[in-house]
Amino acid sequence: VVGLDSGLQVAFPVRLAEGLAHAAPDDLAEIEISPTGLGLHWPKLDADVYVPALLQGVFGSKQWMAAQPVELQQC
What we know:
The chain is an alpha+beta fold. Helix content is about 25%, strand content about 20%. It has helices at about 25-30, 50-55, 60-65, 70-75; strands at about 1-5, 10, 30-35, 40, 45-50. It has a three-stranded antiparallel sheet. A two-stranded antiparallel ribbon has the order 1-2. A hairpin with a 5-residue loop joins strand 3 (about 30-35) and strand 4.
């Protein structure tokens, strides 16, 4: 669950995000927020999510998204 300053909370299954699908709960628990607040980084996984892209249904790089099932590409 990602909570924004506006009060909006966005939840997404970690299996949808590039680099997070097979992560252990301990690895997911350690998260860093970029200084601008627009990026999320999981150091143990070397995985990143860009919050504005997440809000648009983009859960990874263009190449990674293109390799996903059609259902995910249309989020």
